[in-house]
Amino acid sequence: MFVLLVEDDDVIADAICTYLTHQGQAVEHVSTLSAATTYMQSSNFDLCILDLNLPDGNGINWLSWLRDNRFSLPVLILTASNTIDDKVIGLKKGADDYLVKPFDLRELLARLLSLKRRASDRLSNTITHGALQYDLEQHKALLNGTLVCLSRNEDLLLQTFLNSPQQILTQSQLKNVLYGVCDDVASNALNVHIFNLRKKLGAPAIETIRGLGFRLGTIEVSH
Amino acid sequence: MSLRLRLTVLVAAVFLGFWLIASVWMISGLNNKLAVNFDQRLRSTAFMLGNILAHVPKDALSKSLPDIINASGVNTEKGLTCQISSLQGSIIASSNSQSFPHQPTLNQGFSYVSSEQAKWRTFTLITAQYKITIADKVAERDVLYHDLLISILIPPALAIFVALVLLWFAIGTGIRPIKLLIHALEKRGSHDLEPIQLNQPLKELQPLITSQNALMARLAKGISREKHFTSNAAHELRTPLAGILAQIQLAELTQDATQQKALGQAKKSAHRLNTILDNLLVLAHVDADTPPNTTEPWELESLITTVVTESNNNSARLTYSITASQPVCCMPSAMLTIVCRNLLDNAFKYSKANTAVVLAANLTATALKITISNHAHINPADLANMATRFWRKGAENGAGLGLSIVASIAEKYQGSLILKNDNALFIAEFTVPVKVNN
To answer: Is the CB of residue B94 less than 8 Å away from at least one CB of chain A?
Structure first.
């Protein structure tokens, strides 16, 4: 999952980023709403964790902006405010979940996975695509029932493709997932990871759409 | 006891008191006047009879007077009794010889005579030929006196009773606005802080209603502010607490460098939590305490030097000047220490890195002024909010309490906190009126 974290407290943000990264997720952290707006417009996030009391405004207003501009990604509000009114307003304005600080990192991840599962209209955290079965929680990929060893970046790429099976993903979007929005990386690093994925899952697993990017292909059952 | 009953009883007591005093006075006067008049009647009658008898020959009188008396109808049990006797004491004529006793020893003048049947008041006139005694029954006098008394006292008593009944209703009508006010207060819930509204309230009640409504408005504002403060305080405390717990959990789940980093981050958050708690305690202290009337004099220079020394991390950026020739006793030194620390902390935190921060402490005969300037420009729209509790802007992890504490202290000591931009500088001016120690 590629998560946008909008949180102005450095310590909380650091804990979330470290934990989610440790759990095989990609996180981009911003501490202001203006930065969040910029990131939303430039990248393709799967989920958003949103604090409400931010230096340049209220998260609820930004959430309204998000929905008004047809960003449909699931949003989890993570705030210290635990009044019923705040929860009701947050959920009414377009949030998909609400978690009050202090919180448990494992609960946060479980809620994020649940949100992503519901957004993808799946019944479990396991995605099946042809001969591939991928467990989003355990980060385990089974090809024809055999465990496939994936590096962190390969795992992130596979998740991204599996989460958007019909979508063409640009190089820029994939790089953002792997290295963050601001990081500038060598142009062939992404190709190396794609090459490795094809090697492990079969060449048709990732299709190259010339001039546009990449798309999830077919992973066939071997006999 | 109800107000209506109390007022009625009070007015009734006053009325009855006056009426009783007037009555006693009147009865006493009436009694005396009646006695004098009755006696005067006896005396006049005796003299009139004496004058008449002086022109009648004694022999003729002795023969005809009893007949005259009998024929005139004056020989009755009621009214005046007349007894004419010779100077030697023999009765010549008597209008009521059966009940009025013969009193040969009576001297001229008024006297009381008692018989078995009655008590008499008499007047005896002794002329050259006769002894004339006119008598009046005391019992008859008393009956007359009592009849007169009743006819005088009953109408006013009835009038007073009717007046009291009318008064009862009049007071009820008069205090109706008070009753309406009481009813309006009674039907309010314990959490109802809406203003009291009465249709055409009494002019005298208007100040009470106005002050009550003002009190409730202040109360509502205070409760709202308290709720806002509690909510904000809870929010500000939860955030670093959440940071600590999240980082500790992360430390439990990770190892080595990540674990150490997580513990370091938890410590950072704990420090922040501690700072917020300190600020909240200071704020509570400032809000709760009444400024002391007298303060031990202290040296401004010593205080500023201590505060500057504490900012050793930023000492290279800080320049300061002190103008004070006398000790200060307008506020406790601890309060000014908080003011200087918070203003300096704010200046260091929100100014451009490595730019100068200037502190000027100036004590004059009228005011103590602390001015701190730093390189920053604040959005004019934000200037008014900067001293609001829990208001914060920017990426720094402040709780939004520092300047609000300074503003509270300024207000406590009848001073002011002015925040303004001056070209490239942001200036905070804390001023309090001064009482210089002589």
So the answer is: no
Do A132 and A209 lie in one domain? The reply is yes
Please name which of B40, B43, B58 lies closest in space to residue B130, comparing C-alpha atoms: B58
Q: Is residue A222 part of a domain?
A: no
Digit-coded pLDDT (tens) for A77-128: 999 888 898 899 999 999 999 999 999 999 999 999 999 888 888 888 888 8
Which of residues B139, B160, B181 is at a domain's end?
B160
- Are the Cβ atoms of B243 and A12 closer than 8 angstroms? yes
> Do B278 and B300 belong together in one domain?
no
Calpha distance B119→B115 (Å, rounded): 6
Nearest residue in chain B measured CA to CA from A22 = B254
How many cross-chain Cβ pairs, A to B, lie less than 8 Å apart? 84
> CA–CA distance from B275 to each of A109, A119, B282, B400, B425 (Å)?
31, 41, 10, 11, 27
- A51 touches A79 (CB < 8 A): yes
**CA–CA separation, B170 and B174 (whole Å):** 6
CA B304, B305, B306 angle in degrees (round to 5)?
90
**Mutation site, A12, A21, A107, interface B, largest B CB count within 10 A:** A12
> Is position A221 within any domain?
no
- Both A87 and A21 in a single domain? yes
Residue where a domain terminates, one of A67, A97, A119: A119
Integer Rg of chain B from CA:
52
pTM over 0.90: no
Interface test with B, best of A11, A29, A51, A81 (most B CBs within 10 A): A11
B213 plus B360 within the same structural domain:
no
Asked whether the predicted pLDDT for residue B437 surpasses 70, the reply is: no
B131: helix, coil or strand?
A: strand
A146-172 burial, b at 16+ Cβ within 10 Å, e below that, comes to eebebeebbbbbbbbbbbbeeeebeee
Q: What's the structural domain count of chain B? A: 3
pLDDT digits (tens, 9 = 90+) for B306-341: 888 887 677 788 899 999 878 887 888 888 998 998
B239, B241, B246 ranked by CB distance to A16: nearest: B246
- State whether B244 and B324 are in the same domain: no
Chain A positions in Cβ-Cβ contact with residue B268 (cut-off 8 Å) = 11
User: Is the ipTM of this structure higher than 0.90?
Assistant: no
We report the CATH number of the domain holding residue B326 as 3.30.565.10
Both B281 and B296 in one domain: the answer is no
Q: At what angle do helices A105-119 and A10-22 cross, to 10 degrees?
A: 60
